[in-house]
Amino acid sequence: MPLPHHVPLAEQTRDGLVESIHYGSLIALGPAGENPDSPVKLSAGDPDAPFYPRSSLKPLQAVALLRAGLTLGQDLLALTAASHSGAAMHQDGTRRILELHGLDETALANSTDLPYGVAEREAWLRAGNGPTQVAQNCSGKHASMAAVCTINGWPVEGYLHPEHPLQVLVRETVTELTGEGPAVVSTDGCGTPLFAHSLRGMARAYGLLASAAPETPEGQVAHAMRAFPEMVAGEGRDVTAMMRAVPGLLAKDGFEGLQLIGLADGTGIAIKISDGGDRARLPVTVRVLAELGVFNEPGVDAGALASLDIPPVLGGGKPVGVLRAADFLSEPVPAPAADFQTTN
135-177, pLDDT tens digit by residue? Predict the structure, then answer.
């Protein structure tokens, strides 16, 4: 598969000299409706190249679980779509999902890990704890996947197999929401089947979720995430802060430099930092939101949104440079790739 044609998205300067550059691609699409070829608001790089959305797939997976009969309170539904920090509320929420469906921690098939949040991980280690499945950042999703199996009479054991009825439904749902069949199927870090899609397809999906009617599965997932942003990530996490700062904004990050956003009007945004470096994600995201006029919308906490940018580059303890978004908007807007597998 050919390498994507990424472009410079962020640059770090030190005393006026560019010290390092982060390449990547991005796209912002206008409201999709039923049309997979949504209008492009801005774009850079190669938004039609397939990539692994990693944890940004979780809200789409949660839609599939609701379609399969999952019923949860909003806090636990937000946890289902989460890459949580591993705080007590996240671990307790995972256990609550299991207990509501007559299950315990032995039903989980995700990998073990320490809490993802820095403060949560340090406190966990000080208490003498090690890696567990409940502490791992995907445990809410896995608890809900196991729960859906009990609801439908499907075997809980083996629920991660790509041909398990649950994963077949997830794949069909992701294909529908992105308007694309997966270019490649792999396995995510937690063990869940992982589908490669384009930034264009993922932006379309987030736009659909963010603007969906409240009673639909898509709308229920989006509303739960916005109502309980602390369950989607955690205190001190930028995804949680973004959803608090912008009314109607839906946000989810993912490993390897990913940011997905849906705005209330149906605009979808997808950003990929090619080297997987997370530090470049926020400056680029803030720049895109600024270009789309989000800072000027009613009810937006512009100060909180602007503060999400990372701290300055230091020399001797004093600011000598900055990591900032590059001039990526000078790139031409590409048309949809003719050879990418799409669905209507």
Answer: 999 999 999 999 999 999 999 999 999 999 999 999 999 999 9
Residues 340, 51: contact at Cβ < 8 Å? no
Residue 36 in this model has a pLDDT that exceeds 80: no
Residue bearing tokens 């949580």:
84
Residue 335: exposure state from Cβ atoms within 10 A (0-12, 13-18, ≥19)? exposed
Which residue matches tokens 């990913």?
Answer: 258
Nearest by Cα to 87 from 62, 125, 116, 127: 116
Mean pLDDT of 258-266: 97
CATH number, domain of 176, equals 3.40.710
CB contact at 8 A, 147 and 70: yes
What's the full length of the chain, in residues? 344
Query: In terms of C-beta density within 10 A (0-12 exposed, 13-18 middle, 19 or more buried), how is residue 315 classed?
Result: exposed
Give the distance, in angstroms, between the CA of residue 103 and the centroid of all CA atoms in the same chain: 27
Using the structure block, give the residue that is written with the tokens 């003719």: 338
* Phi and psi, residue 207, nearest 5°: -65, -40
SS3 60: helix
Whether 150 and 78 have beta carbons less than 8 Å apart is answered as no
Q: Which domain holds residue 291?
A: 7-330
The pTM of the full predicted model, rounded to 2 decimals, is 0.92
Predicted pLDDT at 340:
44
Would you say residue 149 lies in a domain? yes
Whole-Å CA distances, 88 to 100, 103, 106, 119: 18, 19, 19, 12
φ and ψ at residue 179, rounded to 5 degrees: 75, 15
Longest Cα pair distance anywhere in the chain, in angstroms? 63
pLDDT in the model for residue 156 = 98
* Assigned domain for 344 exists: no
Tell me whether residue 66 is in a domain.
Answer: yes
Q: Is residue 297 part of a domain?
A: yes
Percentages helix, strand, coil for the chain (3-state, rounded to 5) are: 40, 20, 40
